[in-house]
Q: What sequence folds into this?
C-alpha cells in the first residue's frame, strides 16, 4: 500500500514561524535539562509561547524540573500536553512506566519523536525546545530528518574532556546541515563567600567547543553564556520551580536569562 501518509509536522511546514532549538550535550550530567527548562521558563516569562519536548530517554527529567505533573490527555486524534509556568511539555517519560524507555531502539524512538512533533497539540508556538539525549545518538539523527530547520544549542561544562565530547555532539550538525546557534557553558565556577570564583571543573570548555565548531562550520558559533554553579539552581529543579522565575537576579539565573534573550 502506497497510501500511508507521513504525519504532518507543523514546524517543518514552509512558513512555520516557530523557532526550534535542540539542546544537545556530549555526555550526561552537564546540566542540559536544567538549561533547557530555565530557558523555556525565561522565554515564557517574556511573553513568548513556548513548548518543550523531553526526548532524553535516559533522563526524562524535564516535567519534574518544570513542575509539570499533569498527564497528557487525548482529544480526538491529538495529544494535549500538560503545562507549567506557561510552558507546554511532553516527555517520553509520560508514556513509559518505569524505565522501559531505555531499551527502546532507534525506530521506536524515531516514531515517538515524530508523534511528539506531529500529534501533540502545540498551538501556535514562538519557540519549541527539545531536550535531546546526550551524545550523538539516534534521536539527533531522527530530529535532523524530521525537522531539518531545528537549530542546535550545545551545552558543555568547562572541563576539557567534556568539551571534546560536546564537540562531537555538535559536529553532527555538520553532517545534517543544521545551524548551530551557540554554546552554553554550565557549571563554570562556584562563587565563594569572599567573592572569589572557584573553577571546580576547570575553565575554557565553552570557548573550546565554540572555536572548534566555528572552524568546522566556517561560521562564528558564539558562547551564549557561562552559568555558574548555584545550589538553588539544583533545588529549583528538584522543586519544579526554575531559578529564572524564583530569583531572576541570582547570577546563574541572570546568565540563563541573557542566553534566552540571545536566542
Ligand atoms: P543533564 O540533562 O545534562 O543530564 P541535568 O540538568 O539533569 O543534566 O543536571 C545534572 C545535575 O546537576 C542536576 O542535579 C542539576 O540540578 C544539577 N545542576 C545543573 N546545572 C547546575 C548548576 N549550574 N548549579 C548547580 N547544580 C546544577
A:
Amino acid at each position: 500500500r502506497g497510501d500511508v501518509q507521513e504525519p504532518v509536522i507543523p514546524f517543518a511546514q514552509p512558513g512555520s514561524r516557530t523557532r526550534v532549538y535542540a539542546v544537545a550535550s556530549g555526555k550526561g550530567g552537564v546540566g542540559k535539562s536544567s538549561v533547557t527548562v530555565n530557558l523555556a521558563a525565561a522565554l515564557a516569562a517574556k511573553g513568548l509561547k513556548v513548548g518543550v519536548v523531553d526526548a532524553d530517554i535516559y533522563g526524562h527529567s524535564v516535567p519534574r524540573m518544570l513542575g509539570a505533573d499533569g498527564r497528557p490527555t487525548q482529544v480526538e486524534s491529538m495529544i494535549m500536553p500538560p503545562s507549567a509556568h506557561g510552558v507546554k511539555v511532553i516527555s517520553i517519560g509520560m508514556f513509559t512506566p518505569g524505565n522501559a524507555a531505555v531499551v527502546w531502539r532507534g525506530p521506536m524512538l524515531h516514531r515517538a519523536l515524530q508523534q511528539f512533533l506531529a500529534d501533540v497539540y502545540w498551538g501556535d508556538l514562538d519557540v519549541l525546545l527539545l531536550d535531546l539525549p546526550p551524545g550523538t545518538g539516534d534521536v539527533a539523527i531522527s530530529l535532523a530528518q524530521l525537522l531539518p530547520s531545528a537549530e542546535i544549542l550545545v551545552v558543555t561544562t568547562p572541563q576539557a574532556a567534556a568539551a571534546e565530547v560536546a564537540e562531537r555532539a555538535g559536529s553532527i550538525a555538520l553532517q545534517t546541515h543544521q545551524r548551530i546557534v551557540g554554546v552554553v557553558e554550565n557549571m563554570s565556577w562556584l562563587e565563594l563567600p569572599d567573592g572569589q570564583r572557584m573553577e571546580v571543573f576547570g575553565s575554557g570548555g565553552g570557548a573550546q567547543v565554540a572555536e572548534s565548531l566555528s572552524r568546522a562550520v566556517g561560521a562564528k558559533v558564539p558562547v551564549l553564556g557561562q552559568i555558574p554553579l548555584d545550589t538553588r539552581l539544583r533545588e529549583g529543579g528538584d522543586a519544579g520551580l526554575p531559578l529564572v522565575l524564583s530569583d531572576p537576579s541570582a547570577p546563574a539565573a541572570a546568565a540563563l536569562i541573557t542566553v534566552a534573550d540571545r536566542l
Summary: Residues 25, 28-34, 59, 61, 186-187, 227, 229-230, 233-234, 237, 252 surround adenosine-5'-diphosphate (CB under 6 Å). The first strand starts at residue 19 and ends at 25.
